[in-house]
Amino acid sequence: MRLSPTHLRRYKDIVLLFLRHGRGDLARQIQQGRAEFGAEGDIEEREGSGHGAASKEPEQLAADLERMGPTFVKIGQILSGRPDLLPARYREALARLQDKVAPFPVEEVESILFSELGVRVSKAFAHFERTPLAAASLGQVHRATMRDGREVVVKVQRPGIRAVIATDFEVLHDVASLLDRHTEAGRLYHFSELVEEFGRTLRDELNYEREADHMRRIGRSLAEFPRLHVPQPVSDYCSPLVLTMEHAPGRKITRLGPLARIDLDGAGLADELLRAYLKQVLVDGLFHADPHPGNIFVTGENHLALLDFGMVGRLTPLLREQLLQLLMAINEGRGEAAAEVLAELGACDAKASPADTQALARSVAAVVARQPEADLQDRAVGRALLMLDHEARLHRLHPPPELSLLGKTLLQLDEVGRTLDPNFKPAESIKRHLGEILAARIRSDLTRGNLFSTLLEAKNFAAGLPGRLNRVMENLGRREFELTVKSPETDELLAGMQKIANRISAGLVLAALIVGAALLMRVDTEFRVWGYPGLAMLCFAAAAAGGGWLVIATFWSDSRDETRRRRVKG
Fold first, then answer.
1. How far is CA 37 from the centre of its chain?
2. Which of 214, 262, 267, 521 could be a cystine partner for 309, CB 3.0 to 4.6 Å?
3. pLDDT in tens, 384-442
4. What backbone torsions phi and psi does residue 214 show, to the nearest 5 degrees?
């Protein structure tokens, strides 16, 4: 642990946060509700939790996280979208952290713009609003007008934020390592890995040039969806600390009134949004991972605009295929298939036993079986993914962090869909579009390069096949056919067997010496040692020396082999 004054203050803040909220109403509700998550929906409020001091805990938690700075504000924002972790009152309190953060002075905004863009604000823009449009934990947004008349918004990173976050993550990593070593929860959830993954995500969010690249790539991906819009960046006005993008006028979907909803095709928009996310996740492998209602606007044309692309998820081709299989198994209620895919997704703990594997299969089957039995209105695939992630960790399997990220994203999409249309059925929409997504995946794999490579391999195989078959048949006819099996573990196996044989042989020789010496003790001879027959004593001495040598050689050899194995694994 680091002992600088800054780090010590952060350790103190974290300890006080745990003492204040880790033993009260929140801890009790999480402990009681976690096991029931998914059976009734979200973690439920407990009787009596809304009275007295407990009723103030959600707002107090939000205030404490906000006081501790941007890293912990971001943690609060993430927790606000996790009904598997927090009750509704706490999520509502933390949700305000998404867009109600105190702004920093406009003079600092102008200074950052000048240092990043190399030009004064008055020269770069025809008009720049000094009052921020919104302020968040990492930066704030101002409206502006370009010299060519385009309406844009300019996002500027908070000054000094990177140094603060770097220190916070050093402290969080120390705390996570301590929990991993000394708590059962740490051994199950590997907090150090979660902190590392969160750190990578936050570092991406701090690089606005990378966010601009995400906007371009996802914008191209969603071009086929006419009612979805991704504002595009203005490349010449972007830097790691400044992001200038098209202005997407509209209102948050949570602020739509009854009159505005009359002309809004909420069901169609929700279905198109979910289909677009399935394409991002299962075909493109790059998806917008923070679609909470505050990041989705309804434009004047009654289309949807997606905002804030700092947090994205990336999936390898293999992971995309496995997640597609998992989603299909969940939607169809095939628990055994879901358990098999989940086992392929995760790395098994060294302490896992066959009993853990069997218990996990039963738990997964129980979770998945509830999906078809529930009413379509109540099914939530995102919730099911989070439950599977939780069950896997309880049974010593460690799924990739992308699984929980995807579960959180789909849960947020459920909320968005039901905000647009209270009768929206996300499970039905997913089931309807999975076949289309599967076809799109197949088409994406059939690129010209892949097709030519496959054809070339087929041509080479067809050209060489007759000659190879002739050689095989000739060798069979001459009885010269040989089958050679090479295994990287064969040499180690043979060496181990040779070692065992040598030790058994040495043991037999030593046993024979001892038995012979015992028999010679009855033969009286003139040569005596310490009053006993000399030949018998020599045999006993040889047996003792040989036994000592065998014990020392065994321990030394085993220690050397163990050191070599650790070096190879490391």
1. 20
2. 214
3. 888 888 888 877 788 888 888 888 888 888 888 888 888 888 878 888 888 777 777 67
4. -60, -40
Tell whether the model's pLDDT for residue 272 goes beyond 90.
yes
Name the one residue in this structure whose structure tokens are 């001459």. Answer: 478
CA 390 to chain centre: 12
Structure tokens at 452: 């030519």
Could you tell me whether strands 304-306 and 228-229 are parallel, antiparallel, or unpaired per DSSP bridges?
Answer: parallel
- The pTM of this model reads 0.69
Is 290 known to be catalytic?
yes
DSSP letter, residue 242: E
Q: Within 13 Å of residue 447, how many CA atoms lie on the same side as its CB?
A: 4
CA 336, 341, 342, 346 torsion-angle sign: positive
Ranges assigned E (strand) in 362-433: 397-398
Q: Which amino acid is at 222?
A: L
Q: Which residue has the tokens 């007759």?
A: 466
Q: Which of 25, 174, 290, 308 is catalytic?
A: 290
Euclidean distance between CA atoms 309 and 460, whole angstroms: 46
Quick check: 517 and 557 in contact, CB under 8 A? no
Residue 42 CA, distance from chain mean position? 21
Q: For residues 394 and 398, give the distance between their C-alpha atoms in angstroms, rounded to a whole number.
A: 9
Under 8 Å between Cβ of 70 and 137: yes
For residue 313, the SS3 value is: strand
DSSP result, 51-98: SGGGGGHHHHHHHHHHHH-HHHHHHHHHHTT-TTTS-HHHHHHHHGGG
Token readout for 463 is 């050209």
- Outline where 183-296 has alpha helix (H): 184-189, 191-205, 208-221, 258-262, 266-279
Fill in the DSSP letter of residue 423.
Answer: T
> Which one-letter DSSP state was computed for residue 448?
H
- Cα distance between residue 126 and residue 201, in whole Å: 35
Residue 403, C-beta contacts closer than 8 angstroms, at least 6 positions apart? 323, 345, 385, 388, 389
Between strands 228-229 and 532-533, the pairing is unpaired
C-alpha distances out from residue 236 to 193, 232, 330, Å: 37, 12, 46
Among the listed residues 554, 529, 553, the one whose alpha carbon sits nearest the alpha carbon of residue 539: 529
Class of residue 81 by CB neighbours under 10 A (exposed 0-12, middle 13-18, buried 19+): buried
> To 5 degrees, how large is the angle CA 252–CA 76–CA 201?
90
For residue 555, with 0-12 CB atoms within 10 Å meaning exposed, 13-18 middle and 19 or more buried, which class applies?
exposed
The span from the CA of 69 to the CA of 9, in Å, is: 13
Other beta carbons within 10 angstroms of residue 287's beta carbon come to 25
| Cβ contact 165:310 at 8 Å | no
> In terms of Cα–Cα distance, which of 380, 457, 438, 454 is closest to 411?
380
Q: What is the pLDDT of residues 33-78, one digit of tens each?
A: 444 444 444 544 544 444 445 567 788 888 888 888 888 888 887 7
Write out the two tokens for 6: 């800054």
Tokens 């004054």 locate to 5
